[in-house]
Write a structure and sequence with these properties.
2 copies of one chain form a homodimer. The longest helix of chain A has 19 residues, at 289-307. In chain A, helix 16 crosses helix 18 and helix 18 (630-639) packs parallel to helix 20 (675-685). Chain A has 20 helices and 29 strands. Chain A has 750 residues and is of the alpha+beta class. Chain A has 4 domains: 11-59 and 76-306, Beta-galactosidase, Chain A, domain 5 (Distorted Sandwich), CATH 2.70.98.40; 355-543, Glycosyltransferase (Alpha/alpha barrel), CATH 1.50.10; 544-685, Glycosyltransferase (Alpha/alpha barrel), CATH 1.50.10.10; 687-749, Maltose phosphorylase, domain 3 (Sandwich).
Chain lengths: 750, 750
């Protein structure tokens, strides 16, 4: 745990120059707009340790699958979002010496991420080329013009003599992935140009053997500066416009670079891409930098209008929740239904920029509250559109129906650990459950009765084929699965997975009773199939321990050595850095909630006593070594009345990256876990539930706080809920009147 | 299943030219002498599909470990025996046209492996260079001079005009492993020479990052021929002596190549290697080819003298058992205690030439019967000498004591599937059990009371730390293990593993009571430790099903869908080629005996009824998709009186490779499984057991056979057991008189 930035309500700022934290700082100052994004690396280059990552949404590469021994059913490739051609590069020389903060130590250094406006600024002074200059680097990734990234650099001559400046505005295709096998590069250059104030480079992903698409990407940068154009260079793997000029002592120079990026995701030929780049750059060239910034800033204001959370009495918590929403919205705001939310978004290579079940389990519940319903609906459509891939995945396993992938870009599985790929099939249930969540929250039944019914039916077909009937127990079972607690693998009868399987089958049967005849005809679910599903629902085995009256995570769990985690010496934690894998597997320690995840999904279906007993039992074994863990425990703790525990668990997820809790923020941010802090405040502290279409609240105020206030989107309305020491105040900010339930009392809001 | 060779008692012969079976033929005609060996590839080169493999015992490379996602405790590298510099190469040109049977189709083609003498001969006629020639290629890998390989080529001009011949005797370092990552090559050349009738090449394995040894290998070939020396070539990666001459119509030419190989395993410097090569080649050059062959042939005769098995009435079975013993002895005959028996020996790349638990479980019981006790003792010493590696493996898992590796060259684990590496720990018990086997069979207690006591103690320390106490069942358990049946992974309480764990602890306690004080002092087993071990022995959990009165393979096994394998459509077999891994895992199908393996180890500890019930139960689910499986089932079938079943199961392993049962002989031979046919005849059909130092037999004669006869080494004696329709005749061939038990009757042999 290490806090690298100062605390402020709307800014993430540091004035400390600390190269040892550079990767952490780069992660935290990442910017993105769903379509593209980058880490907060230094555009002028940095010869010390850095991860220069620029990523394009939906542009990925099917890399060779690396496994120990092949197993039938493995996917052909491991998909990953590759590091894009670096269009950010701006090489700066002062009196012949290249700016490189690994070589010149800066003073008055400052990084500032403005979360309200979506702007990252970096300023510092530095002795270079025999003089002293002040630099300011500003950048934004436009949330209104998805192709656009703006950079503005100001240079002040703080010395006593003239400074000769040379600046190269570069697009550089000589980039690597850190996770590449044998240092492979992934981009072939198709065209390159450098002409006065423009550079342009068109590249294409390397050919692969897997019949998956190759991507063509065009980039065009325009420079505006008061320096003079010196020359253009078209190098083997890069293009440059070079500018030069002198800044007198006390004077300043300005340099702007605006880059637009268009890809074959949106255009069907290389010429269509370059034509579009030309058109768009002409239009944007007419605008000033501030003119480009204005709509971007306005859009951020509108996002915050719908979603801001205010916390009084805990500035760290205030900053944390805004940072989390800022990075979540940067990663995805539902503008492109072909995109999704990778666990690290555009902030690092890990998890390969792909889609996980995190989206349905942790993100959709938040987007439902903080954005228009279309955002969540687009995420549901993403899966619907990938049904063909899910058929392939099920077929790979020799099973009927659809198995949505653990990791994917196009619906086809692209991950290769058998215990995950083949076995962590609860994901299929989570994807079904998200359909229910959306429908229950929004009241919009158009998805579930059409596309949703199809998704549910195919998932149910998978479940019905994946279960087996145990003659010895006269029950249906799911053997060989891995639950959300990945510290146990390949178990029999994971309670959570069995529960979701049973629930999905029943929900599908319910929905099938309601669909239009033409939908039913298309789905073609036979009476035999329905009978079989009903039989499974009625006879599904769910582990239960009659002594402890709890739900064992899986068969065999109660036979473990049940020593609480509190008895493990602290120098052995986190377990995943200190224990061998087999020791972890046979231990009772829980990486993230499994039974607790089920209690959250079906929070109204269990009694307070049941929830309390299970929480008490599992909490003592849970190490929360997944970033997705603590927030769910916090909600259950709040639900059963463990308020202090709920707050303690909330704190683990609220500032996970800002405080580098898991010592891995350097790799990128935990985008999908960032949702946890919002869920804890809204579902946990405020007790928000939607029951039969009605909003319910049962709030409490964390002891340390003076108040908290959040805005929530619900069925064409914006509500504002404020909880302080005097109680709860709920306002209708916009939309039609509505009756809500506050701690058991009906309240009509107008 | 496909029989590619003719049946004959002492020969494996074919006269069919079938390029589509070439790899199978190469595997089957492999030759080796424990120190080095090669597949029966064509030395003149073959531009069609071939696997040119030459391998050196104990020379290996630690390749990069390829895994999906890293797990704590994984080894640093994946070890493999690399394809050696190819010293067999002899390029032949006739009137300028190169001999290459992928291009010229041969007639009168014949491959002949003479198992009695250890000679592989290949003859054919071919139209080439406008004429017709007859070729004979003969080779042997000397079992008396471990460095020596001899090749003899005879060329007869069958045409009507003179044939101009050019022959290059080559040592070629431009070799690949088929399993290499990204086509890496592993050999760097240190020195090369070609001088008249000698070529010499010294090479060294590539540098690796793992602190494991690099190997230096020197090779020197000498040519004797009636052709004239033309020139020498020293190429970038090879060296050649080139000879030329003309063969008149009806005349013949001869060409001999003898190669010696010395490595840094035996010499500590490059100069020591080359000096030895010079000395040895001088000595061998004085000998004729037949002079070199003579002691080799004599040694094979002596091996057969001790071990031959004769079967009357089933020529296929006769050929099968001899082939199995021939290839087993070629792979290992106990001459070098630093070497071991890789599952594919010197016949292919798969299994990487490394040591597996196959050695202890399947090979030691055979060597005890067919060779001097030193052979088995050397195999025990191999493990003792690798104790340091076993300490490292246990420590990698955070555990006490010694964990012998699943796959190794030097004692350190070099395999990287977590479910195997971390979990298939029964191997530790098998290695302990082999100590008992050796001691019980030979009566020699010198190993078990010294080195063996140390091995047993450290294995017991591992077990005692690996078990956990289950508070819910009040029993010691082993969770997260994989048994010999690798079609179930990461299970709890594998009956076989738990049984071996308990047995090892008790056996170790027994042995510790008998060791000398200075041994006890060195081992330093405290009374606390002994108490703990005793506690585990007394309270070890062993799965038992009271309904079916059988031992469930593991917890959860009885909950599976227990549909017999006979109900699986035959086009889905073998499962490992048709079913996804997860489907296999959750099925009840058994790859190789797990409970049955335990019944074999402790065959006298269970009643006939117990064995029968378990055999009946498991046989219906067993698919025998490991080559190690059927032979053990055969022994248990014989033991419980299922004679026909025993014979049927025997047949699956007796001609496994000759008939390409598993459709994978092309990859190499199943060396360690070849032991199965001997075990089935001796332990199964003849019912041989050693009880309290006494030999017991309870033979039956397979219905199809007229008789079988085998020789067996037992405590300084050679016995011959003959079973025919009139009964059993047991003779003492050499050694002191001995009393044996034949079907319950004591018999004194003189």
């Amino acid at each position: 745990m290490k806090q690298t930035f100062d605390i402020a309500p709307w800014h993430v700022t540091t004035t400390k120059w600390s190269p040892e934290d550079k990767r952490i700082q780069e992660s935290i100052t990442s910017l993105a707009n769903e379509n593209l994004g980058m880490r907060g690396f230094f555009e002028e280059g940095y010869s010390g340790d850095t991860l220069e990552g620029v990523y394009l949404g939906g542009v990925w590469f099917p890399d060779k699958t690396r496994v120990g021994w092949w197993k039938n059913g493995y996917p052909q490739y491991f998909g990953k979002m590759i590091n894009a051609v670096n269009f950010m590069k701006v090489i700066i020389k002062v009196n012949g010496e290249q700016l490189d903060l690994a070589k010149q130590t800066p003073s008055d250094f400052k990084l500032d991420l403005d979360m309200k406006q979506g702007i990252f600024t970096r300023t510092f002074n530095v002795e270079i080329g025999g003089t002293k200059l002040g630099f300011s680097f500003e950048r934004f990734v436009s949330v209104t013009q998805k192709e656009l990234v703006g950079q503005r650099i100001k240079i002040n001559n703080l010395g006593s003599s003239e400074a000769k400046i040379e600046i190269s505005s570069m697009i550089d295709a000589d980039v690597y992935n850190e996770d590449a096998n044998y240092d492979e590069q992934f981009w072939n250059i198709l065209a390159k140009k450098a002409d006065g104030d423009h550079t342009e480079l068109v590249s294409m992903t390397k050919k692969n053997d897997f019949g998956t698409p190759q991507f063509t990407v065009g980039m065009k940068s325009t420079t505006k500066t008061d320096l003079s154009h010196k020359e253009d260079r078209v190098n083997e793997k890069s293009v440059e416009n070079i500018f030069e000029g002198s800044i007198a002592a006390g004077a300043a120079a300005e340099f702007e670079k605006r880059t637009i990026v268009a890809t074959s995701r949106d255009f069907d030929s290389e010429s269509a891409i370059t034509n579009y780049l030309d058109e768009l750059s002409d239009a944007l060239d007419a605008e000033s930098f501030d003119g480009l910034l204005a709509p971007h800033i306005k859009e951020w204001a509108s996002r915050w209008e719908k979603s801001d959370v205010e916390i009084d009495g805990d500035e760290g918590a205030q900053q944390g929740i805004r940072f989390n929403l800022f990075q979540l919205f940067s990663t995805y705001y539902g503008q492109d239904y072909r995109l999704n939310i990778s666990p690290k978004g555009f902030t690092g290579e890990k998890y390969g920029g792909a889609t996980y079940w995190d989206t349905e389990a942790y993100c959709i519940p938040v987007y439902l509250g903080v954005a228009n319903p279309e955002v969540a609906r687009n995420l549901l459509m993403y899966r619907y559109n990938q049904l063909d891939g899910a058929f392939i995945n099920a077929k790979q396993q020799g099973l009927d129906g659809a198995l949505f992938p653990m990791v994917t870009f196009n619906g086809v599985e692209c991950h290769n650990e058998w215990e995950i790929t083949f076995e962590e099939i609860h994901r299929n249930g989570d994807i079904a459950y998200a359909i229910y969540l959306y429908t229950n929250y929004t009241g919009d039944r158009s998805y579930v009765l059409h596309e949703g019914a199809e998704v549910l039916t195919e998932i149910s077909r998978f479940w019905a084929d994946r279960v087996h009937y145990s003659q010895s127990k006269n029950k249906y079972m799911l053997h060989a699965v891995t639950g959300p607690d990945e510290y146990d693998n390949n178990v029999n009868n994971d309670w959570y997975t069995n529960l979701l399987c049973r629930w999905t089958l029943q929900y599908t049967l319910d929905i099938l009773d309601q669909v239009d005849p033409e939908v039913a005809k298309k789905l073609n679910v036979t009476e035999d199939e329905k009978r079989k599903w009903k039989g499974i629902v009625d006879n599904m085995y769910l582990p239960y321990d009659p002594d402890k009256k709890i739900f064992p995570e899986n068969d065999g769990f109660m036979d473990k050595d049940l020593t609480p985690v509190s008895e493990i010496p602290s120098d052995q934690l986190p377990l995943n850095q200190h224990w061998s894998w087999d020791k972890i597997l046979r231990s009772p320690y829980v990486k993230q909630g499994d039974v607790i995840q089920g209690l959250w999904d079906f929070i109204d279906d269990f009694s307070k006593e049941e929830k309390k007993r299970n929480f008490d039992f599992y909490e003592q074994f849970t190490v929360h070594e997944s970033s997705l863990s603590a927030s769910v425990y916090s909600i259950i703790a709040a639900d059963v009345g463990y308020e202090d525990k709920a707050v303690e668990l909330y704190e683990r997820s609220a500032r996970l990256d800002l405080d580098n809790y898991n010592n891995d923020t350097a790799d990128g941010l935990h985008i999908t876990s960032m949702t946890g802090s919002w869920l804890d405040i809204v579902q946990g502290f405020a007790g928000m539930r939607v029951r039969n279409g009605e909003l319910h609240y049962a709030p409490f105020l964390p002891k340390k706080w003076n108040s908290y206030k959040f805005r929530q989107n619900f069925r064409d309305r914006i509500l504002e809920v404020k909880v302080d020491k005097n109680g709860t105040d709920i306002k209708l900010i916009s939309g039609d009147p509505i009756t809500i339930d506050l701690a058991g009392k009906k309240l009509e809001l107008k």
